[in-house]
Automatic annotation (TrEMBL):
Annotated region described as Disordered, given as residue ranges: 440-477
Organism: Paramormyrops kingsleyae
Name of the protein in its database record: TLR4 interactor with leucine rich repeats
Chain intervals with Basic residues compositional bias: 448-460
Domain Fibronectin type-III: 500-599
Amino acid sequence: MASFLALCFLLLPGVLSVAPTCPDRCDCQHAQHLLCANRGLRAVPRAQLPKQADILVFSLAGNFIQNITASDFSRLDGLIRLDLQYNQIRKIHPKAFEKLSKLQELYLGNNLISVISPGTLQSLNKLKILYGNSNDIKEIKPDCFGNLGSIIKLRLDGNSIEKLPDAVFKSLPNLMYLHLESNKLRYIHRNAFINLTNLRFLNLSGNKQKSIRNILTFASLPSLTTLLVSENEIQHIGNHVFQNLKKLLKLSLSNNKISQVELGALKGLSNVRELLMDGNELVHIRSGVLDPLERVEEIDFSRNRIYSVEPSAFTQLQHLKILKLEKNQLTSLSGGIFALNGVLYNLYLNGNNWTCDCNILEFKQWMNTAHSQGRLLTVFVQCQHPDALKGRYLDYLNSTQLLYQGNNSQPCGSDSPVESLAGGLLESAFPRKELNIQADQGGVGQTKKPHAEKNKRKSVVPRSGSPTSAAGKTDTGRVVSSSRLGFPLVTDPCQFNRHFIVNVTVSQVSSNSATITWSVREHRSAPASAVSFRVLFDRFGQAVRFPRFVYVRDGGHSVTLHELSVDTTYMVCVEGLVGGAVCQVASRDHCTGVVTLGTVRSGADLQLVTMAMLGVNALLLLLVGGAWMGRRLRRRLQHRKSAVHVRHMYSTRRPFRAMAPAVASDFTSYQSSRPRMCPVDEGDLIEFPCDRFLDNNSTRRDEALQRFTD
Ligand SMILES: *[C@@H]1O[C@H](CO)[C@@H](O)[C@H](O)[C@H]1NC(C)=O
Ligand SMILES: *[C@@H]1O[C@H](CO)[C@@H](O)[C@H](O)[C@H]1NC(C)=O
Ligand SMILES: *[C@@H]1O[C@H](CO)[C@@H](O)[C@H](O)[C@H]1NC(C)=O
Ligand SMILES: *[C@@H]1O[C@H](CO)[C@@H](O)[C@H](O)[C@H]1NC(C)=O
Ligand SMILES: *[C@@H]1O[C@H](CO)[C@@H](O)[C@H](O)[C@H]1NC(C)=O
Ligand SMILES: *[C@@H]1O[C@H](CO)[C@@H](O)[C@H](O)[C@H]1NC(C)=O
Ligand SMILES: *[C@@H]1O[C@H](CO)[C@@H](O)[C@H](O)[C@H]1NC(C)=O
């Protein structure tokens, strides 16, 4: 022992310089703070300071103290904060804290305490924060907290508490944060939370709850905003169990075994913004269950076993922005299922059992429309069935494929199938909140005077509705006409960008100019919707928007950009104007990079940059996310690594088409020589070389850095 102490002493030279009255090995440089954390102490040191009552903070964390005796703190009656965390405390004398009537914060976490004798905390009536987390407490009773009326935050997580008895927190009316996660709570008395009228936050995750059934359990928590009950064993959520949680903003039931949610289970949760039910055993989402969630913005149903969702399940959720349904067993969704979710922009659907036949056609059309209006981020729907389409993305399938490949002996549409080369070019087919689709008239594809029939609730096509009529009658809508009439008719600039502009190339690059050339696929356009082009360009990685663009009238297919800066990287994108309108989402498909020549290196080869992917990414982010995303992107590009995280937002559509062949092959070989650092689970996604900026040995990286740091 003596040698141990000596050793510690030697290791802590700074200690020698402190006032002689300071306890051995502690730091008393601040007159009112006694800091003895991490000093190898085995007992609470005796302070010999003249004015002990002036000490406000006493830190003893990270020592080897086992016992707290009655006299340890008996002369420190002015103490406001006492930190005893990370010791080996088993026993606390019932009178240990008797004199600490001014104490506001007591940290006892990460010790070996199994019992706090009644009365130990009796005199702490000013206490606001009590940490008892990560101990070995098995039981708590109302009298533990007898006089702690001021407590605001109580941590009891990481213990072995098995039950919460009647009114156990009744004397804590000011409590706002209660941590009970990672215990063994099996039984919670229906009145356990009584009198917690100010409680905002309750974490019950990581316990052993098997169901939530009792209406009273959460009924006395009117101020609760966050309720976390993930990682339990809950199978069943009863009716009205949350009905008094009028202020609740976040409810997490993730990673339970929930297979049954009563129709009225979510009643009363009118303020909830976030509902997490991922990792459960749900199989079916009924309409009506979610209706009480009037203000919900994010719902996570991923990793369940959902195979069906009723078409009107989401119709009341006007504020829904993010919906996660990934890793379920959905085969199809009804075409109008999200028609009334006007602000939905992020939809996670990958990892389902998508069956790409005519049943999903309307849904695909909805998706295409939402994309083309810039309302929706890219959604990955990878077909699993039929075999012929397995692994393909719904986005790329044309309706002919959906209609005939579904191993239906009969194609779904009996008369001529809709030629939806672009997948439903239905301008304003979904006017927000005025959508009307009726199974009997069969018209996702139809724009039916939206003002005439207002917002009927039951207007969504049921999945079982006849797809035949749905597909058959759309020819009255503003749909691209059939190729039987010659070349496809173009009406929508987004679709035009996506499908008709090809072969964007750069040539004649000098130090201040470059020529951009592109081709256009054969098409028809109505006289009123003549096609012309514009070329956007900007220094790469700099602006939030594209401030510069050049219009190319009269059907020209090339343009020379002048007055570019010397030795600078530009991103250049070509997009179409159809009838004077441009796509609200910038073209992600037809961008390319140009590096103007430097003056010193005049005569050097032209430098085309292998940065189409970055360009694609930047554009998408800029336009979709606005300034916020733009800022993040730039930050990401500055810290190169994080480019990886935006991988899922890439357009997967032929992103390299616009590049010169030499560059493209260069890029390909570059890519294939790299280890696959970021596995992509979607078959034909273009993999972004995520390690590109991380490889310290690569000279290529340095070049890239210089190039991209504008
Ligand atoms: C703590 O108390 C227990 C029993 O009261 C005793 O056996 C043990 O030696 C004490 N530990 C120290 C370090 O004083
Ligand atoms: C609940 O708190 C109120 C004061 O806020 C008190 O009067 C009442 O006795 C408490 N209830 C219980 C069961 O202790
Ligand atoms: C709630 O408890 C869970 C399980 O221990 C934990 O993972 C989570 O971080 C906690 N949440 C908060 C906000 O404390
Ligand atoms: C997936 O869907 C097909 C029908 O399209 C069905 O035959 C198959 O059983 C489904 N698989 C699973 C795992 O649900
Ligand atoms: C639909 O796709 C199939 C297969 O790729 C193709 O043969 C067919 O021509 C396409 N139809 C139209 C109208 O593009
Ligand atoms: C298509 O359907 C027939 C019977 O209708 C069945 O025998 C055949 O196996 C199916 N093919 C595929 C690829 O599902
Ligand atoms: C685009 O380029 C490819 C190969 O260079 C060529 O086969 C194709 O015809 C071009 N497309 C158009 C529309 O010019």
